[in-house]
Amino acid sequence: MSTELLAPLDLAFWHLESADHPMHLGALAHFTPPASGDAGTAAAGSEEILALLAARASAIPRLRMRVTDVLLPVGGAAWTADKDFDVRRHLRQVRLPAGDFAASAATLAAELMERPLERGLPPWEMYLLTGGPGDPFAVLVKLHHALADGMRAVAIGAGIFDEIAGPLAARARRHGRRSGRGPAAVPPRSWLPGPWQVAGMARGRIEELGRAFGVGASLLGASLARAGRLDPRGAAALSASSSGTRRLATSVLDLDEVHEVRRVAGGTANDVLLAAVAGALRRWMTERGDALPPTDPSALVPVSRRRPGGPPGSGNKLSAYLLDLPVTEPDPWARLYAVRDGMDRNKAAGPLRGAGAVAVLADQLPPLAHRFGAPIAGNAARMLFDLLATSVPLPRSALSLGGCPLREIYPMAPLARGQSLAVAMSTYGGRVYFGLVADGKALPDVDRLARAIEEEMAALLELVR
């Protein structure tokens, strides 16, 4: 049976999860329906799409792995091939009521994102959302964060698309590999000690715990102090008590317009997008009658530590930047420059330094520390940042499923404990798609925040034209 130890950050995500804060990523992908609107053809199309999803998901080795505890290292866990794997436990079809399909899909996606994944099974789910004959359809994908970071999630999830699944299957046939085979087994002695090693390993583990906690406490304390979050004073709406409910709001920007602003202001397209989020937060807070916070809310901006062009590999490889979103600045152009300057400072320091690099601590902590320290780490998130703002890369080429073109795709990020909003962005087909995941009770008007992103982008365009 194939076995692979969870990487340190994967283990941290696995233990950070609670009933109100499931640690899974998601994406809601909308597809153009089949050409025919005939009722019989549409029904057959749904069945064919469901069968196609089942076959392609089954052929992705990582999706056949589940998490199991191990004796050694103490507190550790491993990915193990699920010998009883049944794709039907992970894949479901839901028919939505007649009406606004996009709105119904977003509502259902939010409700499904509330539910933690079953931990005894490979930690993922897919839902095929269908409407009436001739209507578009959508696919909701849920992957546990222990299974993948953003780039790895894309590499795994892309296996369902025609343009990627076909070449992969052909390559597997050429090399004589059986579809669905798990990754190569780790030789047992590469991580399982012999009896003569246990006593010495126990002494070493105690010393390692002491060193790791010392280094971790030092870096975490310095990070929190530099971030100025020891006295949390963020916007009340962004730090409300968790209700365990979720709402999903979506927004779409034109990528050419984003680059039009970028060419005048300098910086990157991501700087423009983060400035649009900052401006949208200000508009939203003002309209709902909230007092602007005394200090600008801090966003955690994840950064991949994977090498450009390198293999996706397994495990999470993340750090992050902390960015103060200039909500208290009234001028849109000044907000954009503040975001650009803040990101430039972060990049100059690098992803392994600065207050946002707390995720790097995971590599220095032994498994036992992750198992028992996760509740403390989870509660500390609200002191470090107010919301998550992440960009999830997608393939640049056009994608399709069963010959049906991918029309739009909305990424979804998990909510940290003590926080109410996570903003995820993906670029595809000349558009930037925003998925805003919010605590359903703390931010019942998150749809208004999504519209404010588009309004802020329009305001920036007016300044450059």
TrEMBL record:
Enzyme Commission (EC) number? 2.3.1.20
User: In which domain of life is the source organism classified?
Assistant: Bacteria
In what residue span(s) does the O-acyltransferase WSD1 C-terminal domain sit?
315-460
- Output the Gene Ontology terms for molecular function: diacylglycerol O-acyltransferase activity
Q: Which GO terms describe its biological process?
A: biological process involved in interaction with host; glycerol metabolic process; response to hypoxia; response to nitric oxide; triglyceride biosynthetic process
Q: Where is the O-acyltransferase WSD1-like N-terminal domain?
A: 6-272
Known catalytic reactions: an acyl-CoA + a 1,2-diacyl-sn-glycerol = a triacyl-sn-glycerol + CoA
Q: Which Pfam families match?
A: WS_DGAT_C (PF06974), WS_DGAT_cat (PF03007)
Q: Which keywords describe this protein according to UniProt?
A: Acyltransferase, Glycerol metabolism, Lipid biosynthesis, Lipid metabolism, Transferase
Family designation: Belongs to the long-chain O-acyltransferase family.
- The name on file for this protein is Diacylglycerol O-acyltransferase
